[in-house]
Amino acid sequence: MARRGALAGDLTASEIVRRRLTGRQADVLGRAFEALLLSALLVALVILVTLLVDIFRDAVPVLSDRGVDFLTSNVSSLPERAGVRQGIQGSLTIVVFVAILAFPLGVGAAIYLEEYARDTRMTRAINANIRNLAGVPSIVYGLLGIAIFVQFGGLSGITGGRSVVSAGLTMSILVLPIVVITAAEAIRAVPDGIREAGYGVGATRWEVVRSHVLPYAAPGILTGTVLTMARAFGEAAPLILIGAATGFLSTGSGGFFEQLRGAYTALPIQVYDFATRNLREFQNSTAAAIVVLLVILLLVNAVAIVLRNRYERRW
Amino acid sequence: MDAAIGDGRLTVADLQGSPRRRRKEALIRRLLFGAGALSIVINVLIVVTLFDGTVDFLSSVDLSTLWTDGWFPRRNQFDVRTIVAGTLLVSAIAMVVAAPLGLGAAMYLSEYASPRSRRALKPILEVLAGIPSVVMGFFALTWISPNIMQRFWDATAFNVGAAGIGVGILITPLVASVAEDAMFAVPRSLREAAYGLGAKKRHTTIRIVFPAAVSGIVAALILGLSRAIGETLVVAIAAGGTGGSLFSLDPTQPGQTMTAAMTALATGSDQVKGASEAFPSLFFVGTLLFLMTLSLNVVSERFVRRVRKRY
Known about the structure:
The structure holds 2 protein chains of 2 kinds.
Chain A: H1 13-22, H2 28-66, H3 68-72, H4 85-116, H5 121-135, H6 138-150, H7 156-159, H8 164-188, H9 192-200, H10 205-234, H11 237-241, H12 256-261, H13 267-276, H14 279-311
Helix pairs in contact in A: 2-14, 4-8, 4-10, 4-13, 5-8, 6-8, 8-10, 9-10, 10-14, 13-14
Chain B: H1 2-7, H2 12-15, H3 19-60, E1 70-72, E2 77-78, H4 80-112, H5 115-130, H6 133-152, H7 160-184, H8 188-196, H9 201-212, H10 214-230, H11 233-238, E3 245-246, H12 258-266, H13 281-310
Antiparallel strand pairs in B: 1-2, 1-3
Helix pairs in contact in B: 3-13, 4-7, 4-10, 5-7, 6-7, 7-10, 8-9, 10-13, 12-13
């Protein structure tokens, strides 16, 4: 860069060529177009910042006045006494259901589709089904939950009707296709050479999957699954339909199984409930509940990022 | 193994491993197939549930109540037009927000951003995608409604416009990510051919990359629309249609969408217990919603496949 063109004073050679080609005109329209495109992202950023600032500002009075009390209080019709303890508990229980049910079933389906299935009509049907399920609006899963787990005649004898068990099962069905799709992607990214090494020494398909494919696909699968759990944690629509309680709720008497089959609520449901009550009174509580929700989601996402950075490989 | 040593020949059975190992293999294969086939079972259950409930509903109500002057389930008025129009209005507003934002962001990330600025800018969309819709509903009601809808138009506190904008923000990351994938998949050689002919970057982006990726971009928009139609909580919180609504296409007024009508049926003012007449209408609306999003998803899938085939 230090060499200067002798003819054009202090311009570099490439600069001279560029000027000759562009006819000494700056591409104003081109710059304007680029700025326009960039502004789309900046608008998104401004919206995001506005959203967070707006919510935090509303939440500060409740969080600074009550602090931990807000986290440990139960559902109440008085804004100064209402807390999110039962919501956090319900949401965590739902996530545990998702982890126990959707995770193994989803990863199993992904292994079948990627490692075992041949290109048959059945396989194509399963694939099409999973893509379709991933596009079904979440509220429709609530209807499925009503029919299977809540209504008399379904499995309500086991789930106890409008209970956290029904909610957990419904949410597991809802996230199952997403788990399958992300896990299948992670498995597909494992190079064939890894598998062939296993087959070469006489391993069966399952042995190759267990000892070769899964260890290498694990970071991708885990990251995807953690993000799916975040989704299950923040999802409210199906829970509204299968009757998360918004008013009175027992404060936790009764045995473990009795509680699982009793009335429940979840953190996003509490946000919805606060927001649709008398908003003037509950605005700050709503914002505080949202802050709790966002902080938990942030922690979950941080776990996902740490997992990805720690185990990520490049082929 | 003994057999092979015995008569000096190797048979297929010798290479298959022990029977126990093969039995285990077959069992695992069957289990995994079961996990895969579960998706079909779920899909069938959804269809049966919706169909069953819809038949229940249609056979129990007077069909003329499906075409009256409003959606008031407690008064047995189930005007389909009202909630479908509300849904389409919200989705249209959402697309007006999400299409320019999503496509602009996608174009910038795919064509203009350096790897470094990409790493810095992409998380904006990723964080936005992680915002739960119940949170966006609160934002739509407490910020968008007073600061946008009521400032520029003569709007009520609860209004369809604010809900539509909220839904639009919510689906922007989806539109951006699908569209970016489509543009990213356009081969470099096409861009280089354009530059070789002396095209400017702007012209290359608009006249070469955009047309080459157009099916993926259309797919992104359709997918966004499908998501907007199924979006529930933003509308349930900010559009204020609880208690029913008259047919209306005014974005400054409260309104009712299919999804919000469903949540209203399940909670609050329209609450209906299991035995009531209005309860099966949930399944009827759910069926409409399912069919609308399903057909949109199928169409968008077609478009995506066209991109994949070409390159």
